[in-house]
Amino acid sequence: MKLLASRLRRIPIGGLFGGAIVLFWIAMVLLGARVAPHDAGEIVDMDVFLPASAQFPFGTDYLGRDMLSRVLHGARYTVGIALAAALIASGSGLILGMVAAVRRGWLDAVLSRALDTLISIPSKMFALIVVAAFGSSIPVLVLMAGTIYTPGAYRIARSLAVGVGAQDFVRVAEARGEGTGFIVREEILPNIIGPVLADFGLRFVFIVLLLAGMSFLGLGIQPPNADWGSLVRENMAGLYEGAPAVLMPALAIASLTIGMNLAIDALGGRDALGGRRRSGEAG
C-alpha cells in the first residue's frame, strides 16, 4: 500500500483528473443502463430539442427522448467497443513485437513486412471496405478497429523490445541459459510496460475517433442502438436551434479523449509506472 501511495503521489493532478474521467466512462459501460433516468428509446416529452433543465439535464433529442439517458446508454458502445479493440490491437502488437525482437531472423522479417503492408492502407478506407463486405455488427467493428491499429502497436513494441534486448542485463540472462519465455517475461516486458501502456491509451483514443466518425457517416452502430457518434449525427437538425442534444454527445467524446490524453501524459514515464531495470544483473 505504501508503494502504491508513493507512486500515486508522483502522478500530476492532471493525470489523476484524466484518469478519473476515463474510469467514470468505463464505469458507465457497466452501470450506464442502470443509472440512466429513462430507457434509451423512451419518448419522455412531445416537444423535441428541449433545452437543458432540471428534468432533462441534457435536453431532449429529435424524437423527444432524454439525451442524458441516451448518452449513458451509448457509453457501452463507444467506450466498450473502443476498449475491446484497443486491447486486441495493443495485446497482439505487444506479443508479436516481443516475439519478433527476440527471435529475429526470418520470423521478424515476415511479421514486419506483413504488418507494414497492412499499415500502408488508410485506416478509414480499410474500415469502409470491411463494413461494406461484412456489415457493421459489433464483432465486426471490434475486429476491424483492432486489426487497423495492430501494426502501429507492433512497431512500437518491437522497437522498445529490441532496445531493451541489447542491454547487458539481457545478455547476462542469456549467458545464464535462461529461456526465451523467461527473458521476455522477466527482462523485457517490465522495462517496456510504461511506454506500451501509453501507446495503448493512444490506440484507444484513435479508435474512439474512428468509430465516432464511422457512426457519424451512418456506418457504425445501427439503430435502435446508438453510440455517441450516432447521437451527434441524428440530432444535427438541432444545431441551428442551439439544442444541447447535438452538443452533449460531442462533449462526451471530447471529455473521454482529453481525459485519456491527460492520463497518458502522466503515466507515460517509466518512473510513474514503476518501470525498472534489472540492476541485479547489470550495473
Structure description:
This protein has 283 residues and is mainly alpha-helical. It has a single domain (22-273), classed as Orthogonal Bundle (MetI-like fold), CATH 1.10.3720.10. It has helices at residues 2-9, 13-35, 67-103, 105-119, 123-134, 138-165, 168-175, 180-216, 228-234, 244-267, 270-273. Helix 2 packs across helix 3 (67-103) and helix 5 packs antiparallel against helix 6 (138-165). The radius of gyration is 22 Å and the shape is elongated. The model is unreliable at 269-275 and 277-283 (pLDDT under 50).
Q: What topology does this entry show?
A:
Elements: H1 2-9, H2 13-35, H3 67-103, H4 105-119, H5 123-134, H6 138-165, H7 168-175, H8 180-216, H9 228-234, H10 244-267, H11 270-273
Helix pairs in contact: 2-3, 2-10, 3-4, 3-6, 3-8, 4-6, 5-6, 6-8, 8-9, 8-10, 9-10
The overall number of domains is 1
How far apart are the first and last residues' alpha carbons, in Å? 29 Å
| Helix content range | over 70%
Q: Low-confidence runs (pLDDT<50, min 5 residues)?
A: 269-275, 277-283
Describe the biggest sheet? none
What fraction of the residues are assigned to beta strands by DSSP? under 5%
Pfam families: BPD_transp_1 (PF00528)
Keywords: Cell membrane, Membrane, Transmembrane, Transmembrane helix, Transport
InterPro entries: BP-dependent_transpt_permease, MetI-like, MetI-like_sf
Main location: membrane
Name some characteristics of this structure.
mainly alpha; 0% strand; MetI-like fold; 11 helices; 283 residues; elongated; cell membrane; disordered C terminus
